[in-house]
Design goal:
Blueprint (H helix, E strand, L loop, with lengths): L1 H24 L6 H39 L7 H39 L2 H7 L4 H36 L7 H11 L2 H27 L5 H33 L2
Length: 252
């Protein structure tokens, strides 16, 4: 019973927090310089891990897919499968998971450290809304950075898939490119980018909430960062599954 009450309390607090973030996001003042600063930090921290996580996926799909498609004499269709998988599923999910691991933990730790040191209370004393100044820039940064990283990972995934399919796998370059451009539509790109933006929103909100909800010690800051990573990864994977089912049912 205690666990249920604690869960309901956390859910209610999260709903109130989201409402505060929404109100602060769509009303002045907006701290644009702080948002850009956080975006630059997130890009620097995430670009290499995200690239290393997603780029090999295209190679693995091509490596495994060639042997399977060869059974049906349809090697030329490999690029269609590769592009759809990368654009719609692997790139958004893996890029967002890496953003959660790198950016989410960093944001939660930064906010948690500020709270432990009393800086959050100091902002309130100076009549500066902590949610508006500390949380909202991180949320906006995650929403914008995640799709940008997804564009990069799309290119890297397709490029690595091409490298293993064409020069190493013997697939005709013209057939590879024709099927890739014929089957991949703008909807595939927008679906992937939309997923990334949604996942980035979840990362920013959970990181901000965990950071402000931190205890009074350094150990609590580490726990908040760890809880952020675990919670956001689970949320991303579950949401990705639900969105995929909904889009399939809708024919998109």
């Amino acid at each position: 019973m205690t666990g249920l009450l604690r869960s309901l309390h956390t859910l209610g607090a999260m709903v109130v927090f989201i409402a505060q973030v929404a109100r602060a996001t769509f009303s002045p003042p907006l701290y644009l310089r702080e948002t850009l600063r956080i975006m630059a930090i997130l890009v620097q921290r995430c670009i290499v891990p995200v690239s290393l996580a997603v780029a090999p996926v295209g190679a693995v799909i091509s490596l495994q897919g060639i042997s399977i498609f060869a059974l049906f004499g349809a090697e030329r269709m490999l690029s269609s499968f590769l592009g759809t998988a990368i654009f719609r599923e692997f790139s958004p999910a893996l890029a967002s998971v890496m953003v959660a691991a790198q950016a989410g933990s960093s944001i939660a730790a930064r906010i948690g450290t500020m709270k432990v040191r009393g800086q959050i209370d100091a902002l309130a004393v100076m009549s500066i809304d902590p949610v508006r100044y500390v949380v909202v820039p991180g949320v906006i940064a995650c929403v914008l950075v995640a799709p940008l990283l997804s564009v990069l990972t799309n290119l890297l995934g397709v490029l690595s898939g091409w490298a293993f399919a064409v020069p190493l796998g013997g697939v005709d370059h013209g057939a590879f490119m024709d099927n890739l451009t014929a089957q991949i539509t703008p909807a595939d790109l927008w679906v992937g980018l939309g997923k990334c933006a949604l996942f980035g929103l979840g990362v920013g909100l959970i990181a901000g909430y965990r950071g402000l909800d931190v205890g009074k010690g350094a150990a609590d800051v580490g726990k908040a960062a760890n809880d952020t990573v675990v919670s956001t990864i689970v949320l991303i994977l579950l949401t990705d599954y639900l969105l995929s089912m909904i889009l399939l049912q809708a024919g998109l």
